Amino acid sequence: MEELRKIYNAGVVGAGGAGFPTHKKLSTRVEYFIINGAECEPLLQTDKHIMREKADELMLGIEKAAGLVQADRIVFALKKKYSDETYHLKKAAEKLNMNMEFFFMDSIYPAGDEQILVFEVTGRTVPPGGIPMQVGAVVSNVGTLLNIYYAMEDKPVIRKYVSVLGEVNDPVILDVPIGISVRECISAAGGSKLDSFHVILGGPVMGKIIAAEEIDKRGITKTDGGIIVVPSDHHLIRKNALSLRHMINQTRSACIQCSYCTDMCPRYLIGHPLRPHKIMRKIGYSEEIDESFIDSLICCECGICELYACPMGISPRLVNVYVKKKLREKGIRFQDNGSGIKDLSLREHRKIPAARMFSRIDMNKYDVKRPLELKRVDTDTVSISLKQHIGKAASPLVNAGDRVYAGQLIASVDFEDVGANIHGSIDGTVMKIDDFIIIQKTSNGVMPC
């Protein structure tokens, strides 16, 4: 319990994107403890950097986390092509004499998706709408496990590694304080090469798209692992800019019900009852969202359906995003009807090579083959979100005008809550509190203007 308290105190959450509070995830016993080093999205190098440069600390974090869940098997899953990373990891594991297996995966997309990873490693399908614990597994991203190591040293999560790529002059991995603006990160990567650009925050397929005018307002959170600068007329930007009306009209006029979107869906291929082509058929007939659309709730939004499979260029993923939102607003929850496929052998012949997915989304030219260098960046102002995680937002413990220091607890949740503590990432003065806590650096005790 003391170790879980340390993880809770440090505000550790899933660093790979989901942001599930780690002290909650590690509070049960499981058969498999799986380390996710597969880096789901193409292009990013953040996890590879951790595996190479922080292997010793990472192994200590793994040892602690695996002990908490009393795992029978510890499995480090990563891609076969990560030879340099594997060398460093094995060397670090040998130092601790760890009883750990390595599971090497093909370069498929989405290899790092939690439920796909569990299936690859264990052969077990996580129930639709369920979590890996239901099949005796817990999955943790390498960034999360590094933060667990620091938590054992009583160091809270106040900094983040972020890959900055795309149309920037100096692609780089940044070590930045939580809450630094996206603009400052782009500037630290030599600035954008373009006058007109958009930013994909996260990976190129599942990341959040923000316009250039928003990059001053958006601060880096505990779950952000990448910043990709792309032209404003890039295919991914145009695709995501389509209105719902346009998408529905496209569906009605162009969907040929070929079912390729379903045939290639990674969740369908592990036995989940998700059939995107049927959802497209339904919305083509009626825009009234009801229980008949319930399967959309288990879509992981990987983008294969619309960016790889669909021969007509329409948007099953974006339609699913809209449908899921409407179902949740109505309080409709997923119920498994048992209609998922039982013969999972088809999956072996329908895996998507990451390189081909990469080419389809027109990102090849941004793929930096060499390891990116690390650059530490500091800032005078941070905007720290009170909800950087799944669950309850943290409640502020400070007021405007208070002086705070880096590492100070500035917002909290109870240990029993699904939520995470938040800490100041720079020394300074609290300037404003709403959904964010804005801190500005002070010098010589002088309040900022």
From TrEMBL:
<keyword id="KW-0677">Repeat</keyword>
<dbReference type="Pfam" id="PF01512">
    <property type="entry name" value="Complex1_51K"/>
</dbReference>
<keyword id="KW-0479">Metal-binding</keyword>
<dbReference type="InterPro" id="IPR017900">
    <property type="entry name" value="4Fe4S_Fe_S_CS"/>
</dbReference>
<dbReference type="InterPro" id="IPR037225">
    <property type="entry name" value="Nuo51_FMN-bd_sf"/>
</dbReference>
<dbReference type="InterPro" id="IPR017896">
    <property type="entry name" value="4Fe4S_Fe-S-bd"/>
</dbReference>
<dbReference type="Pfam" id="PF13534">
    <property type="entry name" value="Fer4_17"/>
</dbReference>
<keyword id="KW-0408">Iron</keyword>
<keyword id="KW-0249">Electron transport</keyword>
<dbReference type="Pfam" id="PF13375">
    <property type="entry name" value="RnfC_N"/>
</dbReference>
<dbReference type="Pfam" id="PF10531">
    <property type="entry name" value="SLBB"/>
</dbReference>
<dbReference type="InterPro" id="IPR019554">
    <property type="entry name" value="Soluble_ligand-bd"/>
</dbReference>
<dbReference type="InterPro" id="IPR017054">
    <property type="entry name" value="PduS"/>
</dbReference>
<protein>
    <submittedName>
        <fullName>4Fe-4S dicluster domain-containing protein</fullName>
    </submittedName>
</protein>
<dbReference type="InterPro" id="IPR010208">
    <property type="entry name" value="Ion_transpt_RnfC/RsxC"/>
</dbReference>
<feature type="domain" description="4Fe-4S ferredoxin-type">
    <location>
        <begin position="244"/>
        <end position="275"/>
    </location>
</feature>
<dbReference type="InterPro" id="IPR011538">
    <property type="entry name" value="Nuo51_FMN-bd"/>
</dbReference>
<keyword id="KW-0411">Iron-sulfur</keyword>
<keyword id="KW-0813">Transport</keyword>
<keyword id="KW-0004">4Fe-4S</keyword>
<feature type="domain" description="4Fe-4S ferredoxin-type">
    <location>
        <begin position="290"/>
        <end position="321"/>
    </location>
</feature>
<dbReference type="InterPro" id="IPR009051">
    <property type="entry name" value="Helical_ferredxn"/>
</dbReference>
<dbReference type="InterPro" id="IPR026902">
    <property type="entry name" value="RnfC_N"/>
</dbReference>
